């Protein structure tokens, strides 16, 4: 059975239709299928962040993500979300190259006039990103890292937090302060689990975004960590969107952007992710001392 709040909003979208199904899928008697979900009032920010992210992606790269149809909160504060439904298949090599091109030439060309950051909080997994607007990428990324460090239990991760603050003080200004870049729209959580192929069209689709406006290279970080993307994907991407200057520091920036996701997974899951985060920190601090 579909929740009442979903049915009420579907009926506003298509008043003459009948609707059946179970979360997260609803079918209309007119033949349309929708992706639907509702949550608890405590999840309102998360629903809003995802909806605003999808709206922005839909403007920047139409059809690359499921189209947002309706979202909001019921009278009791219950959030709801209705979007286009896509039957998904795994990413193929051909779709991977097209995805690289669309990211490079559409999504990562869509600029913000407000600065770096995002208009509402978004959630990378279950982690709330405070967002807001920043004048520089250095400020924005330092605050993204700081948000994660603030969330780590100090008793358990005091050494990691201390080293993370050193990254904010010594590494981020040196690597990111010199970049001459504009804030472009990022997916924010672009790993293989959030990418697929539309079974009807064969074209790539991205979903479950945690968007913000930042440096395009940051959007490739988690794709490297968890795999699912071939080397040709990254080569194709940079054929369309060359690496930022200084190119000689590209790998250092890649390590710095991967650090965000290792810290986030430490916050979410602990375990070996903390060791990976510390390894990246040690490497960055060592490499920076040799520059």
Automatic annotation (TrEMBL):
It catalyses: N(6)-D-ribulosyl-L-lysyl-[protein] + ATP = N(6)-(3-O-phospho-D-ribulosyl)-L-lysyl-[protein] + ADP + H(+). Keywords: Kinase, Transferase. GO terms for molecular function: kinase activity; protein-ribulosamine 3-kinase activity. Its EC number is 2.7.1.172. InterPro entries: Fructo-/Ketosamine-3-kinase, Kinase-like_dom_sf. It is an enzyme of class 2 (transferase). SUPFAM superfamilies: Protein kinase-like (PK-like). The keyword Kinase applies. PANTHER family: FRUCTOSAMINE 3 KINASE-RELATED PROTEIN (PTHR12149), PROTEIN-RIBULOSAMINE 3-KINASE (PTHR12149:SF8). Belongs to the fructosamine kinase family. This is protein-ribulosamine 3-kinase. The lineage of its organism: Eukaryota, Fungi, Dikarya, Basidiomycota, Agaricomycotina.
């Amino acid at each position: 059975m579909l929740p009442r709040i979903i049915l009420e909003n579907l009926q506003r979208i298509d008043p003459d239709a009948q609707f059946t199904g179970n979360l997260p899928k609803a079918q209309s008697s007119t033949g349309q299928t929708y992706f639907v979900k509702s949550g608890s009032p405590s999840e309102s920010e998360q629903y809003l962040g995802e909806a605003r992210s999808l709206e922005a992606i839909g403007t920047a790269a139409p059809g690359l993500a499921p189209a947002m149809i309706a979202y909001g909160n019921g009278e009791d504060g219950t959030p709801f979300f209705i979007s286009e439904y896509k039957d998904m298949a795994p990413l193929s090599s051909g779709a991977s190259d097209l995805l690289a091109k669309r990211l490079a030439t559409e999504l990562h060309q869509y600029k913000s006039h407000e600065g770096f950051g995002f208009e509402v909080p978004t959630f990378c997994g279950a982690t709330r990103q405070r967002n807001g607007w920043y004048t520089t990428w250095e400020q924005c990324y330092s605050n993204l890292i700081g948000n994660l460090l603030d969330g780590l239990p100090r008793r358990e991760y005091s050494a990691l937090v201390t080293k993370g603050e050193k990254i904010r003080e010594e590494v981020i200004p040196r690597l990111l302060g010199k970049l001459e870049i504009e804030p472009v729209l990022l997916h924010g959580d672009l790993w293989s689990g959030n990418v697929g192929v539309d079974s009807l069209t064969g074209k790539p689709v991205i979903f479950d975004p945690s968007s913000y406006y930042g440096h395009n290279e940051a959007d490739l970080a988690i794709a490297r960590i968890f795999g699912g993307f071939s080397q040709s994907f990254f080569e194709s991407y940079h054929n369309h969107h060359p690496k930022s200057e200084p190119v000689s520091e590209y790998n250092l920036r890649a390590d710095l952007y991967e650090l965000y996701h290792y810290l986030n997974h430490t916050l979410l899951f602990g375990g070996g992710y903390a060791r990976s985060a510390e390894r990246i920190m040690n490497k960055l601090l060592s490499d920076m001392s040799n520059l």
